[in-house]
Amino acid sequence: MVRISSVALFASLFAITAMAGEEPIQLKQVTGLDKVETNCGGCHSLDYVIMNSPFPTGGIWEAEVNKMIKAFGAPIAEPDAKVILDYLKENYGR
Amino acid sequence: MSGPPVSSMDIRTFRLDQEVADSGRVVSRRRFIAVAGAVVITASTSPRVTLAEALGSKLPGALPEGTRTEALLDALPGKKPLIKLSYRPPNYETPIEYFRTSITPNDAFFVRYHLSDIPEVDAAAWTVAVGGEGATGQIELTLDDLQKMPSVEVVAVNQCSGNRRGLFQPHVPGVEWGYGAMGCARWKGVRLKDVLDKIGLKKEAIEIVFNGADGPVLPQTPDFIKSIPVWKALEDSTLIAYEMNGQALPHFNGFPARIVVPGWTGTYWVKHVTSIKAVTKPETGFWMNPAYRIPVGKFPLVTRSFTSQETTANVPITEMVVNSLITSHVEGASVKAGAAVNIGGIAWDAGYGVSTVDLSTDRGRTWQRAKLGEDLGRFAFRPFSYSFTPRKKGGQIVMARAANKIGQTQTTELILNPAGYHHNVIQSLALNVT
Asked: Could you tell me if B107 and B249 are in contact, meaning their C-beta atoms sit under 8 angstroms apart?
């Protein structure tokens, strides 16, 4: 099953699902980027982050990360979620 | 914007094809998976041209700064270069120049997906299963079956609920659309009513639920499933469409067949439709609630029309609000003092019909009636035109305000709502008189 194996990839590898023609999105290369790429980039391209910036307050970014985990079922471990949130707030929020 | 070069590239691309047998249908699921090891993905060797660079002031200044730096012109397979907001899932809006005609070309029609697993559907193998616990029977139809049924055509606007979300102040998270998450096409297909007649609806049936072949990457992510009330499903204009402007639907617009719900926002127009179910209880999936909701009482002019989904706090977004767009000129365009300027654009609503479009060249103090163009039907873009002669050099604001046949007009102030829907504030376009 492809769906199962993609979940396994999430858990164990740096996995990115990409569409043909998709160009890599370079987010700010500071602490936490690896967690963003690993956890977020599997389901959506990272241009979502830049597109939704720099206006979100910390509360908005927190709501977005929670939505990905709770509503969309992103398998993000709690320590990673905190790193991701800090990264987004620090680099793409206000 | 050419991003800083990063470390060496080590991307191996795998294409995974999966034959999914699901309730008798076979759909080829194609997934492109690039797995990078412990390395960082490099930027492309060809520098990307951002929209801000390519078009300068054409991108609305009100968009979030990040959107303005990241949006770029990019062509999906089978499409002209459109304004790329996100690659995956693909969200691409139509540049304003394509709205100078009432019909939006297929290859310039906007693309909107919520989820990233988008199969290329094999038309010969495709079927749509029609049934559900609210139906007395069930049936499975091939594309050939649909094409043998009596066909109808309707010219209708398909507009994303969140069109113009990027113009909200304060900004609202989501896909930061400018003006182009919409299009108008001549849709051909069969009446949904005629298909539902084949299965028979129980009197308890309250909603018709649609699912398409596209889906989430992760199995636990809610699939994009939408419902409409039975009364709307039975309207003559509600279709299962297999043609768009005389051609097969483009892949990215729902090939081989999609639901067409004229008057209602694009969220209900399920693409690549594979399942149609009549139900006796409201559909409860994420995409019906909490998604696509507007607060109760915020938009008093919009008919309350989807009672089975209403709560005391919010209601599903349904009908489009009356709206217009000046398309003859882009923001900041230069015109000559003392020479006639022909302002043109389009207006639309939920199907009550556009009655008037008024323009103002004195910041809304006085309004003059524009001439309406060809009427392609009550659900279509209605062109308008108005000529005036600017006298003074410098900035010149042109405003357009549409009204419809039930007395709705565009608003002067943005009606704030959590998801950034229904932006129909009267446009103020700045021209540069030289």
From this structure: no
Distance CA B17, CA B185 (A): 32
> Which tokens is B361 given?
């060249």
CA distance B419 to B164: 11
Q: Is B341 exposed, middle or buried (0-12, 13-18, 19+ CB in 10 A)?
A: buried
Residue A40, classed as helix, strand or coil, is helix
Mean pLDDT of chain B: 88
Instruction: Answer whether B225's CB lies under 8 Å from B285's CB.
Output: yes
Kindly tell me the burial class for residue B254, based on how many C-beta atoms sit within 10 Å of its own C-beta (0-12, 13-18, 19 or more): buried
- Helical axes A78-92 vs A33-40, angle rounded to 10°: 110
**Which residues does B203 contact at the CB level (< 8 Å), separation at least 6?**
none
CA B274, CA B254: separation in Å to the nearest integer?
11
B-facing residues of A in 53-82 (CB < 8 A) are 53-56, 60, 63-64, 71-75
pLDDT of residue B305: 87
Strand pairing category for B273-279 and B127-131: parallel
Closest to A17 measured CA to CA, from B122, B211, B118, B251: B118
Question: CA–CA separation, B241 vs B46, rounded Å?
Answer: 39
Complex confidence, ipTM: 0.87
User: Residues 128..187 of B with a Cβ closer than 8 Å to A: which?
Assistant: 170-171, 173-176
CB within 8 Å: A14 and B171: no
List pLDDT tens digits, range B153-198. 999 999 999 999 999 999 999 999 999 999 999 999 999 999 999 9
Does B1 score more than 50 pLDDT? Answer: no
